[in-house]
Amino acid sequence: MTDNLNVHADASCDIAMLRMGPTFNIELFQYQSPDQVQTLPKNSDWGGSHLAIYVDDIVAAVNYLRDVPGVVLQGEPKNVTDGGPTDGNRWCYFQTPWGQQMELISPTRPLGYERVTDVRMAPPAPDWAARHPYK
Predict the structure, then answer these.
(1) pTM of this prediction?
(2) Cα–Cα distances in Å, from 67 out to 7, 61, 70, 71, 103?
């Protein structure tokens, strides 16, 4: 643990795997450790971070999270309407039971930047389960 992960030798963790498509998974770790610091950095602090996840229906996703024990919603879904590059995006932050900042995003079309370039954000595959042997 110390050599490979830079954590206390007696640390342990619970792991959750989120399957996000045919070739993309996210590992979430919740550590327990004798020397654990439990004050988390804000997004604006050094070491602060968040993970954004695309969802098709942000209202349904937020409603689901309301019933997950320990999840803290940081407000309701917001709409970006400033005319900038992310105009048209819908988003909502939440904290996992161990305090990790996460964000749900659900873009509408067109996003602001799509008005000035042909570049597009990669969407989820329309039927990813049918293309993967581990359905």
Answers:
(1) 0.76
(2) 32, 11, 9, 8, 17
